[in-house]
Design a protein that fits this description.
single chain, D-amino Acid Aminotransferase, Chain A, domain 1, 7-stranded antiparallel β-sheet, 6 helices
Length: 245
């Protein structure tokens, strides 16, 4: 299998078409962005770290009955994936109040939610990726009623798995973003990535509000040691995977 052309370049990855129409190649970049790309930078080895973390988590999710676009890794920062049509929604699952939820509601940072909150954001840079009500989502025909129900069901299942998995890594899963796509047979698959770029992760070994941050908030908030935090997540993920095999 060989690459034929660039299909799409996003903030964190480049997608390439291959000579097999059903298979794409995702190349993970070291580029970092925040605040809808208003802040830009680079994190050393981020592409390799995020690709490795995502690959391990996709494999574990597949073993737990969640269908993903993951196939294999031809290199350390590349992932072969099934070609899907991405549903233009960012699906955010929240377990603890942080980030925009605190800003928009006045909830105190760290408030544990009584039950997971699933939110939908429109993947549209020009509009600033706005939060959508369910009726607005359906009005825009971004997904069908049945697809919305399935996505919510899958998001909550993924949340339960990831909370348990990261707990074994001595990490608290605060919230995270998912993306889903539809394959040629109209199956909904988990796509994109699961990494410190897309998850808010707190180290359970410290209560310090800055030291505990193991995700892209270190870049957003200029906390420093970003690569070290990402590397720490990778090492804990690998250790946990190894311990459970």
């Amino acid at each position: 299998m060989s690459v034929t052309s660039k299909l799409y370049e996003g903030k964190a990855k480049i997608l390439y078409q291959t000579d097999v129409p059903e298979i794409l190649l995702a190349d993970f970049k070291d580029d970092a962005t925040a605040f809808n790309a208003q802040k830009r930078g680079s994190i050393s080895n981020k592409g390799t770290i995020n690709c490795s973390i995502s690959s391990k988590l996709f494999q574990k999710l597949e073993q737990n009955g969640i269908n993903t676009h993951y196939l294999d890794n031809p290199s350390s920062n590349q992932m072969r994936v099934k070609a899907v049509k991405i549903i233009p929604l960012e699906v955010v699952v929240r377990n603890i109040a942080a980030g925009s939820l605190c800003k928009q509601t006045g909830l105190e940072l760290g408030t544990i939610l009584k039950q997971p909150l699933v939110e939908f954001y429109y993947k549209n840079d020009e509009l600033g990726d706005p939060l959508l009500t369910r009726k607005r989502l359906l009005l825009l025909e971004l997904a069908s009623e049945e697809q919305v129900e399935e996505i919510i069901h899958l998001a909550l299942r993924i949340n339960e798995f990831l909370k348990d998995f990261f707990g074994k890594c001595d990490i608290t899963l605060v919230d995270f973003k998912l993306e889903f796509g539809v394959d040629s047979e109209q199956n909904i698959l988990l796509a994109d990535e699961i990494s410190p770029d897309t998850c808010r992760l707190w180290d359970n070994s410290t209560n310090d509000p800055q030291d505990r941050v193991l995700d892209k908030d270190r870049f957003r908030r200029d906390l420093g040691n970003v690569e070290n935090a990402y590397q720490e997540v990778l090492q804990r993920v690998l250790k946990t995977v190894e311990a459970n095999e």
